[in-house]
Design a protein that fits this description.
7 strands; alpha+beta; 2 domains; elongated
Amino acid sequence: MADQEWLAEQFEANRTHLRSVAYRMLGSAGEADDAVQESWLRLARADTSDVTNLGGWLTTVVARVCLDMLRSRKSRREASLDESVPETAADPEASANPEQEALLADSVGLAMLVVLETLPPAERVAFVLHDMFDVPFDQIAPIVGRTPTATRKLASRARSRVRGAERDPQADLSRQQQVVRAFLAAARGGDFAALLELLDPDVVLRPDPVALRMAARSGFLAAELRGAKAVAERFSGAAQAAQPALIDGAPGATWAPGGTPRTVFSFTIEDGRIVAIDLIADAERLGELEVVIQDA
């Protein structure tokens, strides 16, 4: 019992640090809490009699948990956060310390979280641990399953992406707008080859329940679709009434008869290709979005 009490005390002493690590990796206060809790469960089950640096051991554990969560998220092609926007503060009702939540978010910055969200899981883990927490590459390497040299390259690639995004966010926004406009043009023109070129091979088309009912009635869509060929076939010759739009500041499109958005097309774009298209038609969700219709 005494050993468990000592471990609990040491864990609590490291909790703030562990939560900071998890938040930077996951971009979500709620998921960070889940990762920290899982690290405690692993500590409680582990034999730590040979551990000389418990803080370092816990950092490694929470990093492994976060990497698993990032990989699971990527495999499901889900947005990492609600509506693909990092949490800038937690819900006070969901946290015992909302002030700490806000400080945690402010210490990272929304712009940085958005950039981190574009990194592959292993790159994100390597970059966060080394560049933000000074963890040596030889300690990061076993976490991401690479050699120290390869891990250094992961972090270097991530650093280049972060610096590139920080240098010219407007250029990235412009490139994404070009991708969306090219997609709409190819869809309207029935250019199947161009659609395939714009879509990631594992692209997913996800309608919310209202959008699915609307699409099913029109014969456009009966279920979530995956894969470039299936999504290209569905959009080829379609989207005739869709207009380019900014959805909460991000390039997207909308069907807005009479100027009122009825359906929003939210695009997730990585490396110039569309990896996800979310169709949003639920009135409550639409009301929460800022939709700015642009010239076709």
